[in-house]
Structures are given as C-alpha cells and as structure tokens.
Amino acid sequence: MLRFNFKSHNVGLIISKIKNMEINTKRFQEFIENIRTEFVEFNKSDTVIYIQKVVNYVEQFYIENNIPDFDIFIEKAYQISEILAINSGFGYNTLLASILYNTIPDKKIDKQEIEKLFSKQVANALEGLYKLPIIKTDKFSKDPENFIKLLLSITGDVRALLIRLAVQVYAMRNIENLSEEKKIIVSGQTAKLFAPLAHRLGLYKIKTELEESSMKYTEPVMYKFIAEKLSETKEKRDLYIENFITPVSKNLKKAGLKFSIKGRPKSIFSIWKKMQKQEVPFEEVYDLFAIRIIIKCEYEQEKEQCWKAYSIITDSYTPNPKR
C-alpha cells in the first residue's frame, strides 16, 4: 500500500503520480498481452518477472538521473519490442536488451551491472548494439553485402541485429514525424541496407514492410502508380485467386492432408522490381499474386507430405522449373 504525508507533499503532484502509475501498469499489461502468443519463452514462470524487473530498472534510472519523459521512452521501447517479439520469435534476453537499448544511453550502461541483474546474453547484445552507431551507413549504400558482413562481424551477436532491425521498422512507421529531407535519407538507408539485412536473416515479413514503406518516399510516383493499378484490378485478381484455390483445396482435402491455404497480392516493391528486371510495363507483369500452402503435420512427415501436395498441385498446373 502507498502512504503519502499530505502535509509535506503537493496534493496535485501526488494525484498526478498515482494516475501515471495506473497508466504505466495498464500499458505494461497491454504489452505483455501483445507479446504473449508470439514470444517463444513466454510460458516460463520467470519471464514476466524479468520484464517487470527491467522496466522498473529503467524507471529508477530515470528518477535517479532526473531524466524527464520516462513514459514517452518506455512506450517507444514497448512498440519496438512488440515488433521484435512478433517477427523474430527470440527469447526474453533479446526482449530485455531491446527495452534497455531503447531507453538508456550507451554511456550510462554498466555492462557488469546488467550481467549481474539480468544475464550475460543481455549484456552482450547491448554491447553489440552500442557499437553500431559508429558505422557510417551512407558509405555502404552501393554495396549492402559488405555492410551486412561488417554488422555481423562487429556485433558478434545476432540478437543485436534483430533489435536494430526492429528499431528501423519503428522509425519507418513513424517517419511522418521527420522533415522531408530526413525522410529521403532514412528511406534510402532502409531500402539499400536494412531490407537486405532482414532478407539475409530470414525475416521476410520485416523485409517486405521495409521495402514497401521506404519505396513510398524513394519512388513516390511509381509507388502511387502501382498501388492504383492494383486497386483497379483487385476484384478481378481476388476472383482469380479464389478460382485457383478452390480445386487445389478440394484435392488436398481428398488426399487426407491437413493444411491452410491463402492467396495474397505481391508487394508493390516486388512488382516494381519485376517491371525493371523484365523491362515491361505493369500490364505485362503476370506474377501479381502468390498462393501459400502450409501443411500441418508432424516433423517426421513434413518432407513426404510436402512432396505429396506438390504432386497434387502439378497435376492441375504446370510447374515453372526456372522459378
């Protein structure tokens, strides 16, 4: 129970603190719920305790160093960590490092203290992250592969790269807050460096989001053109996808396979790349959608059932061996 001496405190300040505590508690609970289904180690009994511990550590740090706007910085850390949990599936050490990295400046972090309070993995991830700002990303814009190799060698911890990618996704989602000049710079770095990094790490959902969001600013005319074309052909495309899925789904069920099947349009960025590579207008790009089939079975049966599904599909549709 909280006890206040009303004779020695400003009543308005006390009420304000109580309200902030209620807001912070509510947001923390929302954060936990948002990552619960995605976080690979969430069912461990000490997971929430460690997340609460790191948030309390950050709040105490802000109080002791008289740093304002704790609520703003912790909200940013929550959003970035949600991106990380949903897209990477890594454990709570990565999550704790993400919260610390996005709230506390590098010169204020004591590696030994972090290792003692949390874990060596958290401390190592932070150490790798704090090496990244010294890299001048503009030097690698023409050679992203070297940039990726450098990041991997400098950080020495893939968790640091995952957190850095989540930061970039957050930056692109909030890019409207930047000046027009800064938007172009950040979008260019995103497209040329961070989207390829996401691809290299197998984070295809993040890769697609970074490509799409950056193209809005690096190629605004083409982005708008393709978006409008896709909108115009949506009804026809959806019908085509449905007509494709229906017989395939029927045959897979008949074979006794358990599966999920979904159709989706290709991203605007990937369509634009096809137009460039094939040197054709939008109307001559025929690969505008993708069908994804996920087979649900035991690990030992995966290979057999996937080939079975492939055989069923190619009985109806001719495969393209060049793809």
What does this structure look like?
66% of the residues lie in helices and 4% in strands. Helix 2 packs parallel to helix 4, helix 9 runs antiparallel to helix 10 (204-218) and helix 11 (220-232) packs across helix 13 (268-278). The protein is built from 14 helices and 2 strands; from the N terminus they run H-H-H-H-H-H-H-H-H-H-H-H-E-H-E-H. By secondary structure, it is mostly helical. The longest helix has 26 residues, at 11-36. 25% of the residues are buried. The protein has a two-stranded antiparallel sheet with strand order 1-2.
Average pLDDT reading: 83
Q: Runs with pLDDT <50, length 5+?
A: 1-21
What radius of gyration results from the CA coordinates?
Answer: 24 Å
Our count of helices gives 14
Portion in beta strands: under 5%
Fraction of residues in helix:
55-70%
Describe the global form: globular
Biggest pleated-sheet summary? 2 strands, antiparallel
- Helices and strands, in order, run as HHHHHHHHHHHHEHEH
Task: Label this structure with key terms.
two-stranded antiparallel sheet; mainly alpha; globular; 66% helix; single chain
Quick overview:
With 323 residues, the protein is mainly α. 66% of the residues lie in helices and 4% in strands.
Topology:
Blueprint: H1 11-36, H2 47-64, H3 70-88, H4 92-101, H5 111-117, H6 120-129, H7 144-155, H8 158-173, H9 180-200, H10 204-218, H11 220-232, H12 234-254, E1 259-265, H13 268-278, E2 289-295, H14 302-316
Antiparallel strand pairs: 1-2
